[in-house]
Amino acid sequence: MESDGTSAEISPDEATGAIALIDGSRSWLASRVIAPGWYHPAFGLLAGGLIAEGEARSWALFAWSVVGYTIACGALAWVNQRRVRLQMNYWFLRTRLIFAAQILTLGLLAATACWLDLGHGVRGLFLAAGALAAVATVAFGRWTDRALRAHLRTA
Amino acid sequence: MPAPAQFDEVVHAPNRLQICALLAAVDSAEFATVRDGLGVADSVLSKHVRVLHEAGYVAVHKATFAARVRTSLSLTAAGRAAYEGHVAALRAIVGATAGQLEAVEPT
């Protein structure tokens, strides 16, 4: 069914219309994979809760929190995956960099709270770090959404 | 390396072009997702998927989940090459026209 590859088959107007169809499909796809409004705040609450829980100074509670955090994150991702009903590679250069920056930020917040609280006896820092981690997680999540949207429109 | 420009009549039909555009950006998509993206009935999508499948451009996968059969679609390597070649051909047509316009229109 293929032709010889020349451009004689269709007019420039038809070609422009076909490209517009492609762009429209990609825009629809980009809007579909963007996470719903509750998604990133839910991750933010989980990350913030995990760090804020350090205020309790219980290693057993912390260990269980890590388990709960891991399971809850997996469940959230699964629910979102069921919503969009497609499989794709979310890990390209820009999203990897954003994720690395997010991990670094949360790690720095937790480490700073540990250092000041456990090393210098400053109280309440885990709660503050948890609140900042929640906000940072939402911000990084929305940044990832923007990167995904741009990637899908040009893929 | 960009795909060589190659007009493909199987891909060019509007609904099939949209199917390929959606599938080219993902690993696979459920039938219902593609149907929603095109805004067509199941029967219409089935017809176009069958044409793409018979051309070797789309693979159809069926999996049972919670007692329901879910059908997912993905582009084959041949389908991806055909789609990319077709898009390159479309861009070449549009680009050639734009070039001709620039040549005759004063700036």
Structural summary, described in words:
- The complex is a heterodimer of chains A (155) and B (107).
- With 155 residues, chain A is an all-alpha fold.
- Helices cover 77% and strands 1% of the residues of chain A.
- Chain A has helices at 12-33, 39-52, 59-84, 93-120, 125-154; one strand at residues 86-87.
- The radius of gyration of chain A is 22 Å and the shape is elongated.
- Chain B contains 5 helices and 3 strands.
- Chain B has a 3-stranded antiparallel β-sheet.
- The model of chain B is unreliable at 103-107 (pLDDT under 50).
- The chains are: A mainly alpha (155), B alpha+beta (107).
- Chain A binds chain B through residues 1-3, 5-7, 9-10, 12, 15-16, 18-19, 21-22, 24-26, 28-29, 32, 84-89, 152, 155, and chain B through 4-10, 12, 14, 17-18, 21-22, 24-30, 32-33, 37-38, 55, 72, 82, 85, 87, 89-94, 96-97.
- Strand 1 (86-87) of chain A pairs antiparallel with strand 1 (28-30) of chain B.
